[in-house]
Amino acid sequence: MRYSANIVMFVTAVLLATGASWGAKKKDAEEQARIQDSLKQVEIQNLQREIESLSRIRLQKADSLEKLEAAHWSKRYAESQLTEEHQVETRELDGRYSKLSTDLGRVSEEVQTSKDLTTEAEDGAKAEEDAFEAFNTQVRLSIDKSLDDVAGDYPVGMGERMLTLNKAQREMAKSKPNTLPAMRNYLSDLLFRHELTYTQSFGSEKSQIGSRVDVNVYRMRLGTVFLGEAATDNGEIQALLRTGALQGKRYEWNSTLPPDMAESIRAAINTAYSGLSKSKAVQVDVPMDVLQNKAIKNSISNKGDESIKTQFAEWFKKGGIVMYPLFLVAFFALLLAAERFVVLMYRGHLGKRFMKRLNMLVHGERYEEAANLCLQRGTSLSMVLFAVLNKANDTREAAERSLQEALLREQPKLERRMGLLAAMGTIAPLLGLLGTVTGIITLFTVITEVGTNDARVLAGGISEALVTTETGLVIAIPVMIVHGLLSEKIEKVTGELYMQSMALLNRIFDKEK
Length: 513
Hints:
With about 525 residues, this protein is mainly alpha-helical. About 75% of the residues lie in helices and about 5% in strands.
């Protein structure tokens, strides 16, 4: 019991101690709670102040944002206004630009048309100026030639003609030639000269021509064929004996006439004078140089009676020893030309029927029959086409290689000996020139040793020496013509080879693709 009481007392003491301790703890906890509440209240107040501060900042930011947004929308509105104005101005500018572009195009066309017209007008003016300058040059040359020819022309009216032509020459010599006055004077001279040719006259004149100048004479003129003068003091006769432009001067005076001719002319003039004074028609014989001093051959050769063989032999002999190589060149060139002609006619034959039949076989892809057809023909074209058909079942590269080999094999056959034929055409004139030089050397050697005063001997020797040059040119010209014709034929055949072979190659291998 006592133990129980102790226990009870111990428990009571423990409980009292525990209660006191718990009360103290509780008081401390309450104090801590009050402190915590105070801290929380302070913290809440701080937070409220921060919230209030943030609210104010938020309101300020909101106001600023509203202001910024208002400014932004104001700017956007201003930009929209500017954009609309810009678009309006752009549309206006586009319209003006379009109109200006149209106007510019029209003006450019007008300017180009004006330039073309200006260029055409300038070209026309240049052509007219060139033509006028050429005409002036021709007029000037004609006047100068006429003035140079007056001294040797018909003597009657020579002074007047020279004055007229000198006046025309001065007109053309100006910085700006007076073409019309110059032409008028030039044509006046021509008309005066023409009038002299087709008129006749007889009368008393003061002689300004021949050996008796400033002497009163009776002058008889029949066109420009005959002109005779008889002096009135002693009847001395002078006449125009040479006329025309065949040899020497065109007109030549002679006062030392043979007695019989002088007497005949004197009688004619006196009779004409008497007849005119009595108004009677008189017929007299007047000597005239009808042939105009043209030389007449002393003899006429009868070469027409000689045979062609004899004439050829003489001509061949004139050429000398160089004629032999010349004829060898001609013979060799003839053989080469004939051989090339035959070869090109055979190997260069381009048969339309053959190509038509070959194209039909190729179209039907019967390549073996087409190749056999090419072998039967045996021409260069058929051999080249055979090279392609033989590789029809192979690749294109193999066919191209075969084609190149065939072309390289056939082209030299066509062009063979063409260079030799051209050499013959070049050698022939050189041999002719060699013969001419040799002949002239021989001629001058003979003249040096023997000597001669006869120009006909020199001219005859030179003419014989030129026979080889003539022969060389006669040989070379046909040879070069034949060479050109054969070369053209070879080019035609070669071109046909390339064209037909490539066409066949593309036709065959394009189908395989």
